[in-house]
Amino acid sequence: MIARRQNADLVELLGRFKSYTAKKIIEAIEKNPQESRKEWLLYLFKHFAKTNTQHSNYHFWNYKNHPTLLHTNAVLEQKVDYIHQNPVRAGLVAEPTHYVYSSACTDSPITVSEM
Prior knowledge:
It contains three helices and no strands. It has 115 residues and is mainly α. The chain folds into two domains: 1-65, no CATH class; 68-115. The longest helix is centred in the first third of the chain and has 22 residues, at 10-31.
C-alpha cells in the first residue's frame, strides 16, 4: 500500500486499516460456504492470536510495518511496480493487469485517489 496522510500520524491510520480489513477478511472467510480452506485458515489465525494478548480470537496482519520514504518519482514508480507484480510472483495471474484487486487493473473496484 502506498499512502500519505497530511497533518496526521500515518501509523495510527495504518493500525485502523489493518483492524478493519482483518475483521472483514475473517468475516468473509467464515461466511463463505465455498471457501475450501476455511477451517485451516481460521485455525492458523487462532494459533497466531494465542502468541499475543492484543488479539482475542484471530491474528491476521504482521506486527511490523516497513515504511519507505518515497522521495523521488523513480522510487515511487519502483514501489508501485513491486506492488503490481505481487500477484504475478504469487502465481495468481500472468500479468498485473489481470488481477482485479489491483490498481494495475482498469476494471478494478479499488479506487485510486490522486494527491
